[in-house]
Structure formats: C-alpha cells, structure tokens
Design a protein that fits this description.
This protein is an alpha+beta fold. It folds into three domains: 7-83, no CATH class; 90-196, Cupredoxins -  blue copper proteins (Immunoglobulin-like); 206-297, Cytochrome Bc1 Complex, Chain D, domain 2 (Orthogonal Bundle). Helices cover 32% and strands 23% of the residues. The protein contains six helices and 13 strands.
C-alpha cells in the first residue's frame, strides 16, 4: 500500500528516467572504451576522415527525441492531477514562517503538526508569513513552494496509516534545517476525536503560549544564546543600542518598547541584527496578548 495517491505515478516516472539514463550511461561508456582501443594509433595509424553518416545521424536524433517526449508525457500525466484538488477535499491552511510549520483546521484549531484522516482528499492552502518556504512530504512524493501572497496549494489522499516527516525544501535562513514536523494519518473516527481534543495549557504562562504559537522562539532564545533576534533572557530593563532611521540611539528595554517592536518591528532595530526579518504582529496578537508576552518576558531572568 502506497503512502499517498501520487506515489505510484511519481515513482514510475523516476524509475523510467533512471533506467533510460542508466542504459545510456552504460552504452556510451562501452562505446567510448571500444573507440579508445579500436581507433588508437596502434590499430589505426592513419586517421580516417568521416564526413557524415546519414543513418547514424537519423538514429541519434530520432531515438533521443522519442525518449524525451516519452519522459515528458509520463511526467506530465503524473503532475497534472496534482494541480486540481477534489471539491470535497478537507481544506487546511499550512502556514510557514521562520522556522516553524503550523496548520489551521476549518474549525479554527491550530497545531504544530499535521493530522489527516485516511483515504480522504486533503487540500493544503500554502501560506507564508515571511520568506519563501517549500512544503515537502517525501513519503507522499509531493512538494510545493510556499510563497507569500502567491495562493499556492497542494493536495493528496493519504492511503496508509502512520506518521511521516514534513520538511522545508527551500533554504529560508539560519535555522532552515530545523523546520521539521510530521503528518499523522489515522482513521476518520480517531481524527474526529482528535479534532475535539485540546492540549492542557492550564499550567503554562499565557505569554509563553503566544510566543510558541507564533514561532517567536525560533528567532529569540530564552537562554541568552544568539539567533537572528536578541535573546529574551534578562532583556527587560537593559540598555540597548538601537538603530532608528539610520542613527544609533540608546534606549531602555521596557514594556512600551517591546509592544512597539511587536507592532513595528523594523522601527528600532537592536544594533548588530538584520532589519526586515520580523513581520508586524499588530493584526495577529491582540493588545491583551502583547501585554501577556511582556509579562512573561519579565519572568525570564
């Protein structure tokens, strides 16, 4: 049983192209070795000038042309069904950002990993919050670029229960290699139960939950180490040199500065960090949520 409905077609195209390439590799190598000895100076002391050979020229033109057409045909017939999702497909938003995948279901549930029912078509609406990404599920033989405002999508029907890797196949920055998650395929009854369950976050600070949900901890650490953004450890109350309109200014990191940075992240960049990597969260995180984030940062000493 294949992991998805596209595996058979993609694998056949790959094996066919590899087989043709292998035949040509062996054939050309054998001919080269034969010519090396047959037309060496010892066996052919006087060079022969062969101007043309009509039969050979027709053969090496027609055969490769037919093979290329055949490879294109099987590749296109395997790719074309991927372009149009069934009307009854389950629609899930797949959101990529540095450096985290998240998935939003029709009922509003958001998760860090993808869960789908077996033998039902699923359509992923691909959304990027920042740079280009590429959602790749190797076991399903599907990959599609995730480009901001491009409206890309991909679809599949999972045919085998289990858990499979999801990768990012487009270099998207420092922690690109860590942009990993999984897709779990289960029975419809188990899927319906899973949709109704929620993780127990009662003992977790709401500010931390917001940071995790928005992939903030992919760029900012809590242990003092450096990533693409300043660490959150002990940041509240410290003095920092920031760049505002090209000029350096000393500021004290306080509640107002953190909230303004969430709303307008490129207005005052801490010296030594790159501008333009962080998006505005003004329309994503509520005013209450931003205050909860600051409350949490005050706990990280």
């Amino acid at each position: 049983m294949n992991a998805s409905n596209f595996v058979e077609g993609v694998d056949f195209s790959l094996y066919m192209i590899m087989g043709i390439s292998l035949v040509f590799l062996i054939g050309i190598t054998v001919v080269m070795v034969y010519f090396l000895f047959r037309y060496s100076k010892k066996n052919n002391p006087v060079a022969t000038n062969i101007s043309h050979n009509n039969t050979l020229e027709v053969v090496w033109t027609v055969i490769p042309t037919l093979l290329v057409i055949m490879m294109f045909w099987y590749g296109w017939t395997g790719y074309k069904p991927m372009l149009t999702a069934p009307e009854d497909a389950i629609e899930i938003n797949a959101i990529g950002q540095m450096w985290k995948w998240s998935f939003e279901y029709p009922d509003g549930k958001i998760t860090d990993s993808l869960v789908v029912p077996i033998d039902e078509p699923v359509k992923l609406n691909l959304i990027s919050k920042d740079v280009n990404h590429s959602l790749y599920i190797p076991a399903f033989r599907i990959k599609q670029d995730v480009v901001r405002d491009a409206g890309n999508m991909m679809w599949f029907t999972a045919q085998k229960k289990g858990t499979y890797d999801i990768l990012c196949a487009e270099y998207c920055g420092q922690l690109h290699a860590y942009m990993l998650t999984t897709i779990t395929v289960m029975d419809r009854s188990d899927f319906d139960k899973w949709l109704l369950t929620e993780p127990d976050l009662s003992n977790q600070h709401p500010g931390l939950t917001i940071l995790q949900r928005n992939a903030c901890l992919s760029c900012h650490t809590r242990d003092g180490s450096r990533l693409v953004g300043p660490s959150f450890k002990g940041v509240m109350g410290t003095s920092e040199t920031v760049v505002i309109n090209g000029e350096e200014t000393e500021i004290t990191v306080d509640r107002a500065y953190i909230i303004e940075s969430m709303k307008n992240p490129n207005a005052a960049i801490v010296k030594g960090y790159q501008q333009g990597l962080m998006i505005s969260y003004e329309q994503i995180i509520s005013a209450e949520g931003m205050n909860q984030v600051v409350d949490y940062l005050e706990t990280i000493k």
